[in-house]
Amino acid sequence: MSGATLPEGIQGSTGLPRALSFTGTVDCLPCGGGRWRLRGRLRSGAADDAQDTVELLLTGVRLQPGVSCLPSRLHELCIRAGDGTPQTLQLAAREGCFDLEVDRAALHRDVGALFFRAVPGIPPARSTRLGWAVLLTLLRLPLVARLASRAGE
To answer: Is 119 within the bounds of a domain?
Structure first.
């Protein structure tokens, strides 16, 4: 994953928007020690591609009074960054609105899909595919499966 670290929070000067809108479900995972990871797909208009998967990593998270934990899944999440120190983030989702104070935020984009589009896969030779098909077919036979399990002991 490529990353852009935001020592002062989400700011327009780093090339990242002051607001992020996600589509569908966003996984909200606590990592311990006041760290959280929000993973989901950005809404089109907030990213070059509607299927752009990102992770927003938050450290030093302090939740609003009366809220002990964020839900494990948030739907149709919109995050807005406030001004000031410490950095404040407002999370608005179908499950409710949550105000957070964070020490640091980092937005990471998943570049795996771009990589695999740029580097074509190498198809295996026909003999390799045939060999695997024969081996897997033989392993389905009870006698061969028993011999293979004994050889592994």
So the answer is: no
Assessment of whether the complete model's pTM goes beyond 0.90 = no
Domain that holds residue 22: 2-114
Asked if residues 74 and 89 have their Cβ atoms less than 8 Å apart, the reply is: no
Q: What is the count of structural domains for the chain?
A: 2
Query: H or E stretch including 101?
Result: strand 96-102
Q: Of all helices (H) and strands (E), which one includes residue 115?
A: helix 112-118
Helix (H, G, I), strand (E, B) or coil at 64: coil
Q: Residue 85 domain-assigned?
A: yes
pLDDT in tens, 25-53: 899 888 888 888 999 988 866 444 456 78
Non-local (6+) Cβ contacts of 24 within 8 A are: 40, 41, 75, 76
Give the tens place of pLDDT for each residue, 77-107. 998 887 666 678 888 999 988 888 888 888 8
HEC letters along 16-51:
CCCEEEEEEEEEEEEEECCEEEEEEEECCCCCCCCC
